[in-house]
Amino acid sequence: xxxxxxxxxxxxxxxxxxxxxxxLGRFDELSKMSRDSADSDLASYSLHMADQGTDAMEREKSxxxxxxxxxxxxxxxxxxxxxxxxxxxxxxCHRCGEELPFERLDALPHARYCLGCKQQEEKEAxx
Length: 127
Hints:
Helix content is 72%, strand content 0%. It has helices at residues 3-38, 49-85, 102-107, 115-126. It is elongated and about 60 Å long. It starts with a helix and ends with a helix.
């Protein structure tokens, strides 16, 4: 992979990282607002039990989205570490050592495996 392609992938990783951090920041703000409103005197006296269930479901859904974004952020950070630590090795499959196509990295900049090895890994995990 040439330097121009590596620079392109680095910019993609940094843009995705920034987007995920903003998303997690919004989750944090919503979480704080939710806690603050729960501390008010009337918050524990919901008009209906279904409202309490809906609120709990929405908090759980937000937590699951934040967890998913957190895992994605970890993969992005890991890819940036690989890129900065060993740029000559970046973009090579961790299983077979073949060079990943630029198109794959452009679509999924944190990819660690070529398509064939990824499919094999998923097949083994399903078995």
